Amino acid sequence: MRIQGYSSLVVVAVMAMSCTNVGETSAPQLRSPVRTSYNTWVKYEPEGAVCSDGSQYKFFANFSRTSDNLLVSFEPGGACWDYESCTGGVRGAANPHGIPDTHMDVWRIHTPLFLRNSPDNPMPDWNQVFIPYCTGDIHSGNNVAVYDDPSGENPPLTYRHNGHANVQAVIDWIHENFPTIPRMFVTGCSAGGVGAEVNYYFLRTSLPQVEQGYLLDDSGPIFPDGGNSDLLHAKIRTSWNVDPILDLLPAGFDHEDFGSINTFIADLFPEDRMGITFFRRDYNFSLYSYERFYDHPPKEEIHRLFWEDTQSLTAQYDSRENLSYYIPYYREYNDSHCVTILGFGGTEIEESRVDAADYIRNLLDNNVPQQSYVESEQPTEDLPR
After folding, report:
1. Residue 183 is part of a domain; what is its CATH number?
2. Is residue 7 part of a domain?
3. Bridge partners of 327?
4. Percent of the chain with pLDDT over 90
5. 5 lies in a domain?
6. Residue 381 is assigned to a structural domain of this protein
7. What secondary structure letter does DSSP report for 319?
8. Which of 82, 112, 114, 308 is least buried, going by the fewest C-beta atoms within 10 A?
9. Distance between alpha carbon 79 and the CA centroid of its chain, in Å?
10. How far is CA 97 from CA 93, 147, 173, 175, in A?
11. What is the pLDDT of residue 90?
12. Cβ contact 58:173 at 8 Å
């Protein structure tokens, strides 16, 4: 179902919200092991997992006293596939020099879904695992690449696109530390949104203890091939050496169409509920998708290409009952990129009386059909400055 409406900008104030512990009353009988700490972020360093520069990879977990359910969140942070982008010269990737021990000082408040006292959090007492990003490959690469400086002035750059192995190390840890997972919600924004989707198969098949799965790809749409994103897909396929990873997927995934991942996982896990959200006027992911492949077109042309691909994606999602989408028009923050960061202010589709928090609650409610929303053009928003 497609519902159109109107959204207005609301000042984001979630950064000031408290991250203190939730009241712990009437705790159920949990089946996961007893922890030494709760409601605080704990660092883990899986052996053999590395960042792009060869430094030790790290991830973080925050345990609940009251729930066996699990939120898995992938960090955003761009992508790279050549010398220029992997050295940060143009739209590079996050954390090229590794993950600091203090990483969660910032990331613990980047989304209401981590804030245990936030009224916008539909899963405040769930266990939380945060998967940082330092490999420039949307958490899915499988290559040690050597990129030459086109100017010849600097030595070649060795860049470890080790995303797939790093995520698998986290999955192995989850398997060992959560013997039962009644409900698992997998999400992330931007590169993390793509990472959540492309790794969903590996999470679900490697964690048989998960009884019910949910997926929300925030602002990392994997558009069907045959559209404007084909050039990007072809580039990353070689730079990140993803074919050996794709070969691990069973029949149902079309290796010639990256976008078939959407219906592939929906059909493979028909009882799971899966969704995507992004702004129509996203001017971040759209630039990554088209700018360098279409000779740096003007802003409105970028938006036109993005809207064409969006229509192909929503048609694909409409073909499955366990796929849905939430696509508001514009938010005057972060180039309308990432819906679930900081707060849900500005994500409203007012004529439908919903915002992104409502959409997530619907996604998590197994007793109601999934609903999709896309907002119509709002000519008074995103005006030239």
Report:
1. 3.40.50.1820
2. no
3. 374
4. 77
5. no
6. no
7. T
8. 308
9. 13
10. 10, 16, 24, 28
11. 59
12. no
- 56, 98 contact by CB (below 8 A): yes
- Cβ(58)–Cβ(97) below 8 Å: no
pLDDT tens per residue, range 239-286: 898 889 988 999 889 988 999 999 999 999 999 999 999 999 999 999
The total number of structural domains in the chain stands at 1
Q: Are 235 and 294 in contact (CB under 8 A)?
A: no
Q: Check if the beta carbon of residue 150 is closer than 8 Å to that of residue 83.
A: yes
Residue 360 lies in a domain: yes
Instruction: State the Cα–Cα distance between residues 141 and 10, nearest whole angstrom.
Output: 37
54 is written with which tokens? Answer: 């060869």
Q: Extract long-range pairs of 99-103: CB within 8 Å, 24+ residues apart.
A: 99/51, 99/55, 99/56, 99/57, 99/58, 99/132, 99/134, 101/43, 101/58, 103/58, 103/60, 103/132
CA-to-CA dists, residue 2 to 8, 372, 381, 382, angstroms: 19, 5, 21, 23
SS (H, E, C) 111-161: CHHHCCCCCCCCCCCCEEEEECCCCCCCCCCCEEEEECCCCCCCCCEEEEE
Task: Please identify which residue in the block is written with the tokens 């929303």.
Answer: 373
pLDDT category at 28 given cuts 50, 70, 90 is low
| Side chain identity, residue 24 | E
205 pLDDT above the threshold of 70: yes
What are the residues whose beta carbons fall under 8 Å from the beta carbon of 233, sequence distance 6 or more? 225, 258
| Residue range(s) defining the domain that contains residue 140 | 38-374
End-to-end CA distance of the chain: 35
* Distance of alpha carbon 108 from alpha carbon 41, whole angstroms: 8
Paired tokens of 250: 């069973």
Of 257, 262, 277, the C-alpha closest to 337 is 277
Q: Quick one: which of 240, 192, 234, 238 has its CA closest to 216?
A: 192
Neighbours of 7 (CB within 10 A): 24
Per-residue pLDDT of 362-382, as tens digits, reads 999 999 999 999 999 988 887
3-state secondary structure at position 327: strand
Residues 6+ apart with CB under 8 A from 283: 299, 302, 303, 335, 336, 337
Specify the DSSP element, H or E, that contains 170.
helix 163-177
How far is residue 11's CA from residue 360's CA, in Å, rounded to a whole number? 20
Three-point CA angle 270, 274, 278, nearest 5°: 155
CA distance 59 to 51: 11
Residue 261's CB is within 10 A of a number of other CB atoms, namely: 22
